[in-house]
Amino acid sequence: MTIDIDNTLLLLGRGSDPASERGVSCPGELPPASDPALVERARAAKQALGDRLFVLGHHYQRDEVIRFADVTGDSFKLAQEAAARPQAPYIVFCGVHFMAESADILTTGDQQVVLPDLAAGCSMADMATYDQVEECWEVLEDAGIAGDVVPVTYMNSSADIKAFVGRHGGTVCTSSNARRALEWAFARGSKVLFMPDQHLGRNTAVLEMGLTLDDCVVYNPNRPDGGLAPDELRDATMILWRGHCSVHGRFSKASVDEVRSRIPDVNVLVHPECRHEVVRAADHVGSTEYIIRMLDQAPAGSAWAVGTELNLVKRLADRHLDKTITYLDKTVCFCSTMNRIDLPHLVWSLESLVKGEVVNQITVDEETAHYARTALDRMLALP
């Protein structure tokens, strides 16, 4: 096995990456491990809490955090796992804010969801605020098309946005079921407002459902009327919110071309949050769970360039020593907001629970939770 990190890094953390943005960090290496003494403290606190504690670890978390997770997975799988453990009063979610919100929505009132660091957010989710979406809906009403539009929001959105979608007859989707969600929506309206990731919406509509790029327009919440004329909205089938994943959005067609020239017979495997031209150039496209499954099932000796978050790519490479697994981009980046959940924060939250103190509890108000759950339930009912 080789994981081609050393030859594709920035100069070992020296200098900066001008292409970086909030939500990604490109220091040339993964964050350093925490004080080893914290490992024993985390183990002791977890043992003291016993069955009262259930720790969730997202795939993009650091290894030092993942080792203490009772279950790992993507955001919605983890929220479902929490809901399936009603006997555990403490849910510690090692992920980001919108994920912990979903867990709070799906769990019982007797369970308390803890996010070890409240600063662990999601830049994509932050690209669509409730006020912006309300203003967008007013623009659609002024254009005379709101009655034809079914809103669909990606799981990577705040509880407020999920609730908005629930109130307006829409649904939530994941990267695994986006096509089914869009088919459901188009059975109920002639247009879809897809939030907040434009790339997942575009890739699903064009590459899986036969729509064209001309059928899609991008609504920019930072421009008057979204930067679109009423006729553009009326002619569009897919109204895509101008949002993206700060990690997956970094990959480029040049990244694909470069890795193909460097590694003979490489398989390019990317997440559908990547740009349209990247997805079109890849050999395989799928959700995080799909990526894991593909590499688990890949034959020994095969070579893979993976376009997703660095922690997961490195973990998969370490797991599959008989395969060549490398990061797709020359600049190795990880999700900096996800990586805010480190061992010091985890230990602090666990030891606080041992003392009977619930810190950083994530709660969604009753009305928001009701309508967000409505949207989530529609997703769960998808065929």
Please characterize this protein's 3D structure:
The two termini are 40 Å apart. The longest helix has 15 residues. The protein folds into three domains: 116 residues, NadA-like (Rossmann fold, 3-Layer(aba) Sandwich); 121 residues, Rossmann fold (3-Layer(aba) Sandwich), CATH 3.40.50.10800; 85 residues, Rossmann fold (3-Layer(aba) Sandwich). Helix 3 runs parallel beside helix 4 and helix 8 crosses helix 9. 40% of the residues lie in helices and 15% in strands. The N terminus is likely disordered. The protein is an alpha/beta fold and 383 residues long. Helix 7 links the parallel strand 6 and strand 7. It contains 16 helices and 15 strands. Strands 7-6-8-10-9 form a five-stranded parallel beta sheet, with helices on both faces. A four-stranded parallel beta sheet has the order 3-2-4-5, sandwiched between helices.
